[in-house]
Amino acid sequence: MEKRRILIVDDESSLTRMVRLNLEKTGRFEVREENMAANALAAARAFSPDLILLDVLMPSMDGGDVQAQIRRNRRLKNVPIIFLTATVSAREAGAAGLSTQNGLFLNKPVSAERLIQVIDEHLPPAGPQPPPVV
Q1: 50 vs 19, 20, 45, 57, 95, CA distance in Å?
Q2: Which of 16, 28, 87, 120 has the most CB atoms at less than 10 Å from its CB?
Q3: What is the pLDDT of residues 111-134, one digit of tens each?
Q4: Is residue 134 part of a domain?
Q5: Strand pairing category for 4-9 and 51-55
Q6: pLDDT class for 109, splitting at 50, 70, 90?
Q7: pTM exceeding the 0.85 threshold for the entire prediction
Q8: Dist CA 56 CA 3 (whole Å)
Q9: Residue 85 contacts residue 109 (beta carbons within 8 Å)
Q10: Please, are residues 108 and 92 in contact by the beta-carbon 8 Å criterion?
Q11: 34 and 7 in contact (C-beta within 8 Å)?
């Protein structure tokens, strides 16, 4: 089985490391971490993720700005984005997460089990993947 590619963009390196380790230990995912929002588009172009986990509040640019850059890229515009944020409470997000026209928002912290469930629900069907652009 081919591993699905997940890009995590969050300025908290301890969080991205924990999420990466939890996803990789399933044996189902290849994960890349990016802790600088300004580098997110380049990381996404190089990695060609199947799904992006994106923080909302980051120092240099927010998740909405990163999402806008990704959506303007012809190869990445349809990649599902799941926002991870501490700005939405568990009560506001509800069990299914808070869904808006900009995407799905999950509150931090999120359990590994819940995150994997949501990733599985939002991953596009597996198929031939374009090679990463360097």
Answers
A1: 16, 15, 11, 22, 23
A2: 16
A3: 999 999 999 999 988 765 555 555
A4: no
A5: parallel
A6: confident
A7: no
A8: 26
A9: no
A10: no
A11: yes
Biggest CA–CA distance in the chain, Å, is: 42
Q: Does the residue 12 lie in any domain?
A: yes
Closest CA to 11 of 51, 44, 58, 43: 58
Mean pLDDT of 74-101: 67
Residue 93 belongs to domain spanning: 4-122
Please give the full DSSP string across 89-128, using - where no structure is assigned: -HHHHTTT-EEETTEEEEESS--HHHHHHHHHHHPPPP-P
Q: How many CB atoms lie within 10 A of CB 128?
A: 5
Number of domains in the chain: 1
Q: Amino acid letter at 49?
A: P
Helices (H) and strands (E) in the chain, counts: 5, 6
Report residue 57 as tokens. Answer: 């509040």
* Angle, helix 13-24 to helix 112-122, in steps of 10 degrees: 70
CB count in 10 Å sphere of residue 107: 19
Tens digits of per-residue pLDDT, 11-33?
999 999 999 999 999 999 999 99
